[in-house]
TrEMBL record:
Keyword Transmembrane helix among UniProt keywords: no
Similarity section: Belongs to the pectinesterase family.
PANTHER family: ACYL-COA THIOESTER HYDROLASE YBHC-RELATED, PECTINESTERASE 63-RELATED
UniProt catalytic activity: [(1->4)-alpha-D-galacturonosyl methyl ester](n) + n H2O = [(1->4)-alpha-D-galacturonosyl](n) + n methanol + n H(+)
Name listed for the protein in its UniProt record: Pectinesterase
Signal peptide annotation: 1-23
Pathway: Glycan metabolism; pectin degradation; 2-dehydro-3-deoxy-D-gluconate from pectin: step 1/5
Any one Pfam family match given in the protein's UniProt record, by short name: Pectinesterase
UniProt EC number: 3.1.1.11
Catalytic residues of the enzyme: 220
Record keywords, A-Z: Aspartyl esterase, Cell wall, Hydrolase, Secreted, Signal
UniProt keyword annotation of Ribosomal protein present: no
Annotated GO MF terms: pectinesterase activity
């Protein structure tokens, strides 16, 4: 009987262990876009099945969730996002979901370094717009952002972030106008739109995920030192023919003055008109399957320790 009891105990332990799973950092991102959502669901499991595998601080924060509502009509706890952000204490240790009602919020916003674990959540059917007309001329390039996020573990879902400054003429200094400046580590953006012209998205530093997003601009509209994955995300150039021509001229000139030993430009299985490599800079490279492998999994951003499905 003792032997049978021991076997039963061992089976019970195995069953208990098998209920805890982790995000898969090694599974390759599928080349077929139609398979992306299934792959993501299979590899980024909900919190309930991943306890003990996430960053301890994140897991503790997710266990203490609270929601605050922002409504322009006054039906929430706050009418402005700035006031909602002010209510989150420095040193915050719980997931604060800022549920944002529809409409345009014309505010310049900043989530400070100590305000970790903040989520901005809008409705996918009626996405709120965060808008401000900051420019480099007044604030400096990265500080012109409509939304600056310095805190870690930030999440945004179903939000439009817009810099409403006019399209640069090319004749004035300081026309750069950033919509989002993301500085914090381990941030995720789901179904968000980033609107602007020059320097729309400053992917400043840290590990980030952009999934099912839309990013538009004219020149340098994604820049920074971030280590990020862009999955199912559309990048849209909105410059007119003259603007595109000037951009290409700038790049051609840059090739002449930059030491090619300090530049890396790699491409992998590109298609369309822009995939013609005949006029590529000499420093550009076509990557092999082995060379590109480190960039084509969640391991690139170490997602197994912090990435969760989009908030519902």
């Amino acid at each position: 009987m003792g032997c049978i009891a021991a076997i039963q105990c061992a089976i019970t332990v195995i069953l208990l262990v098998s209920t805890t799973v982790s995000s898969n950092d090694k599974s390759r991102i599928p080349a077929d876009p139609s398979s992306l959502n299934t792959w993501f669901r299979d590899n980024v499991k909900p919190l309930a099945s991943r306890k003990g595998t996430l960053d301890p601080a994140l897991e503790a924060a997710e266990a203490k969730r609270r929601t605050i509502k922002v409504r322009r009509d006054g039906s929430g706890e706050f009418k402005t996002l700035k006031d909602a952000i002010k209510s989150i204490p420095t040193g915050n240790t719980e997931r604060v979901i800022v549920d944002i009602g529809p409409g345009e919020y014309i505010e310049k916003l900043k989530i400070e370094r100590g305000q970790s674990f903040v989520t901005f959540r809008g409705s996918p059917g009626n996405m709120p717009t965060l808008s401000f007309a900051g420019t480099a001329r007044k604030y400096g390039t990265v500080y012109s952002a409509t939304l600056e996020v310095e805190a870690d573990y930030f999440v945004a879902a179903n939000i439009i972030i817009k810099n409403s400054s006019p399209m640069p003429t090319g004749h004035l200094v300081g026309e750069q106008a950033v919509a989002l400046n993301i500085v914090g580590d381990k941030a995720a953006f789901y179904n968000c739109r980033f609107l602007g012209f020059q320097d729309t998205l400053c992917d400043h530093r840290g590990r980030h995920l952009f999934k099912d997003c839309y990013i538009e601009g004219t020149v340098d509209y994604i820049f920074g030192n971030g280590k990020s994955l862009y999955l199912g995300t559309k990048l849209q150039v909105i410059a007119d023919a003259k603007g595109i021509s000037s951009q290409l001229t700038q790049e051609t000139t840059r090739e002449k003055i930059v030491d090619s030993r300090s530049v890396f430009f790699g491409e992998y299985k590109c298609d369309g008109a822009g995939a013609n490599t005949a006029a590529r800079a000499k420093s550009s490279k076509k990557l092999t399957d082995d060379q590109v492998a480190p960039f084509l999994s969640l391991g690139f951003i170490e997602g197994s320790k912090w990435l969760l499905p989009p908030p519902s």
